[in-house]
Amino acid sequence: MLSDEVRDAFNDGRGVVALESTIVVHGLPAPVNLEVARECEEAVRAAGAVPATIAVLGGEIRVGLSVEEIDALADPSRTVAKLSTRDLGYAVARHLDGATTVAGTIAVAHRAGIDVMATGGLGGVHRGASESFDESADLTALSRTPVLVVASGAKSILDVGATLERLDSLGIPVWGYRTTRFPGFYLRDSGFSLDWSVDSPREAADAFRAHRVTSPTGVLVAQPIDAKNELDPALHDAALASALAVVAARGVSGKEVTPVLLEEFARESAGVSVQANRALVVANARLAGEIARSWSAS
Ligand code: PSU
Ligand code: MN
Hints:
Elements: H1 4-11, E1 16-19, H2 22-27, H3 32-46, E2 50-57, E3 60-63, H4 67-74, E4 81-83, H5 88-93, E5 98-100, H6 102-112, E6 116-118, H7 129-132, H8 137-144, E7 148-151, H9 160-169, E8 174-177, E9 196-198, H10 201-214, E10 219-222, H11 233-250, H12 257-268, H13 272-297
Helix pairs in contact: 3-4, 3-13, 6-8, 10-13, 11-12
Bound molecules: pseudouridine-5'-monophosphate and manganese (II) ion (MN).
């Protein structure tokens, strides 16, 4: 299950960062998806840690992929399933290829002994969830898996207020990175505030260590997108409204909702959202690398 590089990292006591593969396969268009997968791995390395991109290949759970394997996953002509935690066993038994969501990734990472992961935006409560009950399994997975996830808040296609309430109910801490404003994914500020912040990778690692003494949950470290890459709020709101309308008109449901919303958002914003997504996930990979380094050093 572990690549040689990840096994060596464990043996040498180096920091390891889990990276998800759903964002590569279902969250970003080709060819940017492959570039982002590589840039995230490079960012983790530049921070002094080792990347472990997680996926299921031919039914084998893999922690750490080769360049060729990442290339193959990112190839849009391949059929690759979207795997949340509940899908992992079936994918293994049926020898499927699959990309793991945050939920699927932290389930695998934790069993492999990895404590830190990075993604773009956490899944959460969808708009209209009081009718549809559509709430990402990322939240329940994080409530029972002690992994620190670095993300730019929850995706702004979601009901962010409801997502924060569920994070509270589920006992999952949210620490802003150098901010007490909850990041809004493509925007720096979602409009919601946070109780707590951490100001350095060391503070994040120390707080996570202390958290694990009293709680079985993971934590969300929420880093805002940098000012240079954030979307113009007017463009954001217009693209979001159009994307939501398309999803409603097409009657999209289940695991398709998030990929279709992101794709429509990209179309409506003429690709600006893709560049923002790229910038924020690479920055999150870098910060996760710094936190993993601090985590393994102490
Ligand atoms: N962050 C991104 N883009 C993505 C995702 C996260 O910037 O595509 C993916 C992650 O894999 C996350 C998933 O777990 O979206 C959420 O999907 P759902 O809402 O179906 O749980
Ligand atoms: Mn869903």
